[in-house]
Amino acid sequence: MTTVEAPTTGLPVEARAVPGRPWWRTALARSLPILAALGGIAVLWYAVTYLVLPADQRFLLPPPHEAYGSALGNGALMGPMLEALGRSAVVALVGLVIAVVLGIGYATVMSQSGWAERVLYPYAVILQTIPILALVPLIGIWLGYAFTARVVVCVIIALFPMISNTLFGLQSASAAAHDLLTLNKASRWQRLVKLQFPAAVPSIFTGLRNAAGLSVIGVIVADFYFQQGAPGIGGLLRTYTLRLQMEALLTAVTLTALFGVVVFSIFAALDKAVVGRWYGGHTR
Amino acid sequence: MTGTLTLEGVTKQFDTGTVAVREVSLDLAPGDFVTVVGPSGCGKSTLLRLASGLETVTRGTVAVEAASTSYVFQDPTLLEWRSALRNVELVGELRRVPREERRRRALEALELVGLTGFEAQHPRKLSGGMRMRVSLARALVADPDLALFDEPFGALDEITRLQMQTELQKLFQLKGFAGLFITHSVSEAVYLSTRVVVMSGRPGRIVAEIPVPFAYPRPPELRYAPEFAELTGRVSEALGEHS
Questions:
Q1: Where is the ABC transmembrane type-1 domain (chain A) (predicted)?
Q2: Of B143, B161, B187, which residue is a domain's last?
Q3: Coil, helix or strand for A264?
């Protein structure tokens, strides 16, 4: 017997929806670990600021209320920061969309024959193994230091999980299922759209979740190095660092982290919703 | 019904050098339901794959005369993202049967296997026995002249298994396809078939063909009859001598 395991969500058992329990208790149970983690970080932060750092070096890590307090209330600082975040989000999204299309296409071609996979897979692996920072200077020289170059960095970093997960999914149908189609004289196209693609849907969504997270990393790296035109949030991180604006820097870092968490959560939720429905509703 | 299958001197040697079946000759005419028993690894499943065209013979000939052939796998082999109905409809989709006709036929096939009311369920919501019923419905939906079964009930619990056997021989009587059924259960082989073919250990050869005279439909109680025991005894004996 072969059974297909839907990717697990990683939620602790008690945090899953329990029938008969009010929704807000479920929501609370789910967010409690995150809130506790944030609390832990705050405690650690205060401890470093007041207990580890001597008073004359406290500017290196101002306490949370000062860092956020002075930045969040400052429109002249927050306005550009949020605009930059928006620009970065657009770059990451465009990069992600391109990576998804290219990745699914590339994997589909690879899945069509053994030799296509043997010929094409090494390129994907090379793409994955070159450290992105080694490519960044080249990309800058070839494509300039603005939007296009930033998108390209996102695509390069997000492409591999799309390729590998899609390929895995396309190849996940059982030998017997393939026999069934062979016996019914299915064309290559029918095999692809009726068996391989549907079988790959859960894996494609896993790939999408990973690619989305990587695309966010990609845009921060690209912003950091490609400073032409209006800055992205990564560009501001660099500016604040050079000017040693600790409050602004800490706020920007926090925003970036939140952005990453939000993107990951959106795609994790999407993954769960689609994959659950794919198998005819929630079974667990 | 015109389903016939003729194997003549069929030998299959795999690329690895393993000889799976050697010099097997077998005849299936309309109205035949032949079961094949043999020790594990004797090439029973290979025989079925050769008959269906999934594998090609090394020597010998395979001749199939049937407007439509169906194949039931060891696992139900359902597509998890499709409902029971859409799983059965798949065959029609692949053969480009118009939508309304294939839906009507799929509903009929599901009714035949007792799954009316479960059309919209996905495989995960169905029990092992029900999944196998969907698989049977998918095999019946194209009105096969020749039906090939690769140990389909092997993974089911004993009670479900006996139920499925009872229903399969009813379906055989009703539909009149020629059937070739692989199993490792002697009582299943005798209960279902018009003829039991006993194979030796690898490389598989046919060592005995034992006709089963009981009329269809066969009541479940047939299994406790002395004549039934006598036949299973003969099959077991032939198996014991050659494994």
A1: 85-268
A2: B143
A3: helix
